[in-house]
Amino acid sequence: MGQLVQIENISKVYQQVEVLNRISLTIDKQQIIAFLGGNGVGKSTLLRIIAGIERPTSGKFTYRDKKMSIGYVPERFPKDIRFTPGEYLTYIGEISGLPERERRETIDGLMRRFKLNEYNHERVMNLSKGNIQKVGIIQGVMRKPDLLILDEPISGLDADSQQELVKLMQELKEEGTTILLTYHEADLFEKVVDVAFDLTGGRLSKKVADEKETLKKIELERIDEQVVMMWEEVRKLEKKNDSLVLHVHAKDSDTVLYRILKLNGSVRSVHYYKVQQSEEKID
Ligand SMILES: Nc1ncnc2c1ncn2[C@@H]1O[C@H](COP(=O)(O)OP(=O)(O)OP(=O)(O)O)[C@@H](O)[C@H]1O
Question: How far is the CA of 50 from the centre of ligand 1 (A)?
Answer without folding.
Answer: 15
